[in-house]
Amino acid sequence: MSLETLRQQFPWPDERPPKRIEDKDHHGWLHDNTAAMLRKVGVGCGLILELGTWTGKTARFLCDAFPGAHVITIDHYRGSLEHQGAHHDAIRPHLYDICAYRTWAYQERVTLVKADTVAGMAVVLSEAVEPDLIYIDASHDPRSCEEDLRCAHDMFPNAKLCGDDYSSHKGTLGQMVERVAAEWGMTCNDIGKQGWYLT
Ligand SMILES: C[S@@+](CC[C@H](N)C(=O)[O-])C[C@H]1O[C@@H](n2cnc3c(N)ncnc32)[C@H](O)[C@@H]1O
After folding, report:
1. What percentage of the chain carries pLDDT values higher than 90?
2. Using one digit for the tens of pLDDT, what is the confidence trace for 4-28?
3. Atom 25 of ligand 1, residue of closest alpha carbon
4. Angle at which helices 57-65 and 95-103 pack, to 10 degrees?
5. Can you tell me the distance from the alpha carbon of 19 to that of 177, in angstroms, rounded to the nearest whole number?
6. What is the CA radius of gyration of the chain?
């Protein structure tokens, strides 16, 4: 039970996947305010868990920002509800390959767990791997995000919790995080109503 055995369960492909889309094509979401939030909360973190990675933009940012850290990402690589439209048709069927292609140079420091968020966190826990920080950026509908937030807290009570899209769903995502934080006696801090973290 270790990061090593987790990585054996989710190995990198033997060869770099083919380049499916041009580098200029849509490649992820990392708002400046979210990047600022991550730079702040990630200090001193050796193991970072990202829920929802798409093509790995934030995972690569985290590796660059925190050279000593390992990043575990969890994604089912089917896209969220808002990604099911034609705009993402070229990417969605190849999400894992595109993520692995674009994150290839970081493979010693990144573990790509292909799973639903809750099931993936259970696998990480079963390997006795304890993240220092969990970045929640999978489904943004408040119900799914609340499930991710509560499971993250239940499974990894010592991890710092943060996420993206505070203002999503007409602000109801942020309201949900504020409510859950208050229930836990914690405070939800937002940066520009975009990135958020609990203290
Ligand atoms: C907003 S994108 C993540 C953006 C990413 N953090 C970045 O750096 O660009 C949301 C991702 O969450 C994934 N996702 C949504 N719901 C999920 C779930 N229940 N389990 C696993 N992955 C999920 C989608 O496949 C999608 O790739």
Report:
1. 84
2. 999 999 999 999 999 888 776 667 8
3. 79
4. 20
5. 38
6. 16
Any idea what the CATH number is for the domain that residue 99 is in? 3.40.50.150
Sort residue 165 into left (φ over 0), alpha (ψ -120 to 50) or beta. left
Separation between Cα atoms, residue 178 and residue 163, nearest integer Å? 12
- Whole domain around residue 117: which residue ranges? 3-198
Helix (H, G, I), strand (E, B) or coil at 82: helix
In b/e form, how buried is each residue of 88-118, taking b as 16+ CB within 10 angstroms?
beebbebbbbbbbbbbeebeebbbbbbbbbb
Overall domain count for the chain: 1
Task: Inform me whether the pLDDT recorded for 131 exceeds 90.
Answer: yes
Report which ligand 1 atom has the smallest distance to the Cα of 165: 1
Mean pLDDT over the full length of the chain: 95
Best residue for ligand 1 mutational test, from 53, 64, 96, 97 (most atoms within 8 Å of Cβ): 53
Which protein residue has the closest C-alpha to ligand 1 atom 14? Answer: 138
Give the model confidence (pLDDT) of 67-89 as tens digits. Answer: 999 999 999 999 988 888 888 88
Which pLDDT tens digit goes with each residue over 34-44?
A: 999 999 999 99
Pocket of ligand 1 (CB under 6 A): 28-30, 52-54, 57-58, 74-80, 116-117, 137-139
Sequence-separated (6 or more) residues with CB below 8 Å from residue 145? 136, 138, 139, 163, 173, 176, 177
